[in-house]
């Protein structure tokens, strides 16, 4: 290979490498546009879930937080915010997700128990859900001994 041919090959290889590198950098802008579309997704934790009147709400009890089981809209959501219809009847219950004892209580905006009737006893083996009428007094559902297990209730 002559010196002239060798230089031509090296220049061509260098130009090709530079073109690939620049193309890779400019391709990043498309990815950032895709990411901004995902930012409005369900990962924010600010989502609310409208629950139909008469629906049974089931949660999995874990010390780290309640995990939605049913209705399907809350499945897999940690401490879902429930939107309920004022004056409608609901049931809320839980199934074991760990070996700890849990309960469900309905609390007001001051984080006080709304009514003794809106409280299930502490147990590791729940048997029946809590029946209640949605009222503006109710602001949270909570496991009393585990502060991570609290979700918001909005009554409209």
UniProtKB/TrEMBL annotation:
User: What InterPro entries would the database entry show?
Assistant: Cupredoxin, TAT_signal
Compositionally biased region (Acidic residues)? 28-51
Q: Extract the ranges annotated as region (Disordered).
A: 24-51
Protein's recorded name: Twin-arginine translocation signal domain-containing protein
**Organism of this sequence:** Haloterrigena salifodinae
């Amino acid at each position: 290979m002559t010196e002239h041919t060798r230089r031509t090959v090296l220049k061509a290889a260098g130009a090709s490498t530079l073109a690939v590198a620049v193309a890779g950098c400019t391709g990043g802008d498309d990815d950032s546009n895709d990411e901004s579309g995902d930012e409005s997704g369900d990962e924010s934790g600010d989502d609310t879930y409208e629950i139909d009147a008469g629906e049974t709400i089931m949660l999995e009890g874990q010390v780290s937080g309640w995990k939605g089981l049913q209705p399907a809209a809350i499945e897999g959501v940690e401490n879902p915010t429930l939107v309920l219809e004022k004056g409608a009847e609901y049931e809320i219950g839980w199934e074991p997700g760990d070996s700890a004892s849990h309960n469900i209580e309905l609390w007001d905006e001051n984080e006080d128990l709304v009514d003794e009737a809106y409280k299930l006893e502490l147990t590791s083996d729940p048997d029946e859900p809590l029946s209640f009428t949605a009222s503006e007094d109710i602001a949270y559902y909570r496991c009393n001994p585990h502060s991570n297990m609290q979700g918001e209730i909005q009554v409209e």
